[in-house]
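S1.2 Input.
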Amino acid sequence: MTIQITSDSLVSDLQEEFRERFPFLKIAFFATAEWINNHKQKSNKLVPGTRLGDVISGRENNRVQIFPSMTVQALEVICEEQLGIFVQLSRKFGNSWMEISMTNAWTIQQQNERGREICSIIYKETQDNNGLHAGN
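S1.3 Output.
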């Protein structure tokens, strides 16, 4: 299964489709980025109702497909080169989200599976701790 990003795409639709396919990951879109201290800082986050065609002027006919076997780094590069927008993936970590940066060479599917594993471990530890305290 692939997710297509086109100029007609709404940020909210892409985020929902991404969430359905990869429930332990979250995708955000940004209009700009700049290098600060050897780290690309993304800014001007696109709000959910934004139509990408309003942001990617001159690249309206380009489209990007997201595959589970694609690395996070490849997705970032393709979106920047093909559409002129910037993406950021975050992985679920318990009740919060952690920006993916150190493991951006992993595939999107690997990232999602790692998020599932982490949440499963945290949930189990929480249940075990609640069970221990309940008997006291």
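S1.4 Remarks. The first helix runs from residue 11 to 21.
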